[in-house]
């Protein structure tokens, strides 16, 4: 079993009970746990969309068998969590700070510590959203770079090596604060992948900040019958350089980069040869570019429209105009 996203316009519109509901496009950020589920509201990106994190089988195991192992949930030291069987969802929300590094490191260490303490040591996907991502902090450092320093120091303090870093996304919010959430497994460790066309993010040169971004380009979870590839937020980057100045150029390189990773993954995981994207999230900086990105991604990957929401949001580099993530099943 793994956790997969289902998208709706209303937070309670879902079949099987999800472990978490993320509501994008709220007026403010917040975190709560009730009725065995984590509820998180983010101030952006827009439009308002609800993301439900639901258990899905990669084998013949049914949801009933998974649910029979019991649902637990709680809110501890600012970390909201929900667990069922072998699956964990956990999250934190940090109010805005003049500088992010220390608060991010502390919260990240608590998040990872909670996952380990509950017995879910295998983190296979993370998401990071922060307000004013491209603006400077109180010391004149870009807030995303400030965030990356705290995240990197937390991974180091928790003895998580570079090869253990899971897939991740980093995107801006419409107002301040930091939201982070993860999904983890009790027994199965993911296989973290890099992209042949890109330098691993954790090896970026110092020009990108005091600490390099800490994530893999994708993480693969294998089951007895199916394989799931979690694609990190992917943009128009070759090596470590941003490529293209127009949305058309960046869209073309982004699609090329995603295909480069998929081609490499298929050589290691044969089930992915006949797979497809079951869900994608598209992030576009400028509203006027949304139609071009939507059409291009739909043509390239044929992901179901209802499972590929498009958000207007700032990207982790000021010059980047779009970013794409997704879950590819084979």
Automatic annotation (TrEMBL):
The keyword Oxidoreductase applies. InterPro entries: FkbO_Hyg5-like_N (IPR049368), RutC-like_sf (IPR035959). The keyword Oxidoreductase applies. GO terms for molecular function: dioxygenase activity. Residues 69-184 form the Chorismatase FkbO/Hyg5-like N-terminal domain. It comes from the Bacteria. Keywords: Dioxygenase, Oxidoreductase. This is Pteridine-dependent dioxygenase. It comes from Parasaccharibacter apium.
